[in-house]
What does this fold into?
Amino acid sequence: MKRAQGDRIFWLFAFFSSLSVIIMFTLLFYELLANSLPIWSRGIDFITGMVWNPLKGLFGALPFIYGTLVTASLAILLSAFLGVGIAIFLSEIVSGGIRDTISSIIELVAAIPSVIIGLWGIFVLAPFVRDSLQPLLQHLSFIPLFSGRTLSGLSMLTAILILTFMVTPIVAAIAKDALLMVPEDLKEALYSLGATRYEVIRNVCIPYARQGIFGGVILGYGRALGETMAVTMVIGNTPAISASLLNPGYTMAAVIANEFTEATGDVYLSALIGIALLLLLISLAVNLVGRMIVWKWQQES
Amino acid sequence: MRSQVKKASIAIFVGLALLFAGCAGSGGGKEKVTITGAGATFPYPLIAKWADEYGKITGGNVSINYQSIGSGGGIRQITAKTVDFGASDAPMKPEEFEKAKGILHIPETIGAVVIAYNLPIEGRLKLSGEVLADIYLGKITRWNDKRIAELNPDIELPDHEIIVVKRADGSGTTFIFTDYLSSVSKEWEEKIGRGKVFSFPQAIGSRGVQAKGNEGVTAVIKQNPYSIGYIELAYALQNSVSFALLKNRAGNFVDANVETVAAAAASAANKLPKGDESWYGVSIVNADGENAYPIASFSYLLVYKDLSYMQEKKAKALVEFLKWVVTDGQKYAEALHYVPLPEEVVKRNLETISMIKW
It folds into this structure.
């Protein structure tokens, strides 16, 4: 009798915990929507507007959407390569003590608070971009991506580098775990047929672990989209859309963090909350697309 | 056996919880009063010091709890009466004053905004309001522009672009700065105006940088030669950043220090409104006075004239605290790089405080 009761209590606890998460999310969504209504009455101008000038009552969210998507996407591109590379190194090339040590260091880096990384960005990375990286990239200035310039080192490129630094450990850790789960006998089979290490990794390990690796990439992308402090300290905080990565930019999370406390007036506040809602929707969309891809892979296998 | 141990441990746990709850509740003989406040980040170090000292003076009976959530937040909270006093770097706008009927403005301290720069020059840079406005409008783009050179005849100015730094986040510092530029430049007032945030004009282009917080602007200036920016006096002093001598209304180039900033406040003292009137438009930038520093501003405490909505004990404690803040409390200001209120303003404040009823 007691054991059945205990079971029931546990079931109720698990059920209500899950329910509470769903309720919290729904409430969050509702609050964001309700408090941003004034800005939605301006219609599509809010999302497509390119000018953000609160003093003149102009609220266009496009520069922030652009900044968020560009910095996060380019950062995850770099992080995916680096992260999977590190994961392959840790799972296939080294073993035992070296693997554990490097894994621990990577996990430590993932745990560094973003404010500290932001400080490092202002004092080390930004001057580096300004003095060392920028002169190199100016040779490539015929490509629009590198055509601008930054006099202070605060730019979208710096933000991308800092996001890469923060997201790579996440991708690396999750991809490493996924790769370690590849059954030994599958690999042995291919090795016995005379395959090189690269061929084994490419034909067995990655395909087998691709769901896990992809999950890590999506998680990293989510982090990159929402990262606030480190980005706002190095991106230059200028609400403008420019093709060049060397120009400053602005992200949705950064503008909310910067302007929310002093925002006065219903429209201004609702504009910032509207940006928060857009960020939430973009994160949801990314996760949804990720899930669909993973689901498709499951169907294939 | 197991169920007995379980029952016993539950009993002990509950007993301990009650014991701690009881202790937290009463605590000695005299009942304590907690006064809550919220608002501007600028005066936070000073208010924290006041809270500490006043707690000692009252033997721990009155404790002040201040949250520095920003002037906007402070105004929102006091309007909703969720805190006992608010703090703001800028006076309430007319719409805000309408919503907070019966609010009193009490200047608690004076802040100054200095123009910091990073230049490889000998001696201190001199600037005037018009030149500063034109730098921020993007009309003056290089350091050796003749308009800057004619203010600094003995300095060899470098031929380099000016990196213009401003705040990305909404702040009272930006408000004071734009208030000053609006009062010395018609073009600035029309094109940009006064605000806690503003956007760089197109002409600034890639020379413009926006940083977060006074700390951010200070860091960017220190990292980047040929940059110019505006920060609170305290930050400049604490981080040994060079700042410019500014030409005041009387035509003198003044430094920013306790005397010059207090002079700015003193000259405006007799033009201040009554405590219960709207203080919108009160500004001590570009003040008269031979020695007045041109970019200064009050920071305000906001409290209601009619405290009958509060417990009588708390209302009395609040009024006593406010009286102490504007008189004895001022002696803690200088050590923290704030400027104490001049006599005339203290008198005006005491009049305002005497209006409070409970």
The mean pLDDT of chain A is 91. DSSP finds twelve helices and two strands in chain A. The first helix of chain A runs from residue 2 to 35. The interface with chain B takes residues 52-55, 122-123, 126-127, 130, 148-154, 232-233, 236-239, 247-248, 254, 257-265 of chain A (CB under 8 Å).
